[in-house]
Amino acid sequence: MPVSDSSLEELVRAAADGDQEAWNAVVDRFQNLVWATARAHRLSRDDAADVAQTTWLRLVENLGRIRDPERIGGWLATTARRECLRHIRLHARELPTEDADVFEAPSDEDAVAALLTTERDSALWRAFVRLSERCQTLLRLLVSQEDPSYEEISAALEMPVGAIGPTRMRCLEKLRSFTGADPAFQGGAV
Amino acid sequence: MTDDTTRDDELLRELRALIEQADSPPAEVAEFAKAALGWRRLDTDLAELLADSVLDMSGVRSGEGARRLTFEAGDLSLDLEVRPEEGEGRQLLGQVAPAPTTATVEAQSGDGELIATAVCDELGRFRLSLPGGGRVRLRIRLEPPAAPVETSWFSL
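^ Those are the sequences you sent over. The predicted structure of the assembly is below.
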């Protein structure tokens, strides 16, 4: 059966049996979710890449004993979140200071900003990074996939499914108020 | 309400385009993830990482305490203590329980290289000196016919 017609369950089972094409499809499907979860924890791109790799290794290790393949999105999100916390605490331990800021891993938001070409995009990014961590995380996860699953987002954020809708609304309101205050953000219908 | 919903969707669409343009996952991560399927070793038993003191919020989190990790594969458990050594080095003090008659422990670095080996004493204890941090896993070679046990990958 072509990979594109397979259900997630079929893909995961086939991957566990060593089917590379099926595994590639699983990775392609969830790589944005894993990445968004890591970046949403304010890890730099390098650290996020490290956490994402560890997360995928965990799934490979456990491929043979996934009980509910339909839910590996949630499993990946939970695993990525735990690996982020491990990464952040491990590196905070190494720093000599007791400064509370050590838990804020350095981010490379400026590097991202440098890639943006239009004034409007830059203004949107400036507004986005002013949002609370929770809002940034939620919005990142919401846009990380075509058809975001609230169950996966709930796992990545440790947020009840019922809280996602109202939080989404609040965060977008906030984002809109930030962009509205920025003269560079003009000309669209938003 | 409908207007708000449309406006929200518009803004999210714009945000998605922005993140895709400026902060999409690096291609290396997907390549790594895809290749990882081929690195599985089906002849070994996985010792899963069950506890890591670094994730334990209730415990003391002073910089003094050594990090402790616990792995389990069926009836076999592995307790590990990580101590910093001079420079970038790490010392791993471990104990396999129940103590195997004979066992060798090998440390493998993220690129698959064997970086340290130790033999367990009669109590199942061993000590490994690693040159640096990064991602590692341990492989415990038991007396045949017992299958070797391999830990999950973990970062130091």
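Chain B has two helices and ten strands. The interface with chain A takes residues 7-8, 10-12, 14-16, 18-19, 21-26, 28-30, 32-34, 36-40, 46, 48, 52, 54-55, 61, 63, 67, 135, 152-153, 155 of chain B (CB under 8 Å).

Shout if you want it in another format.
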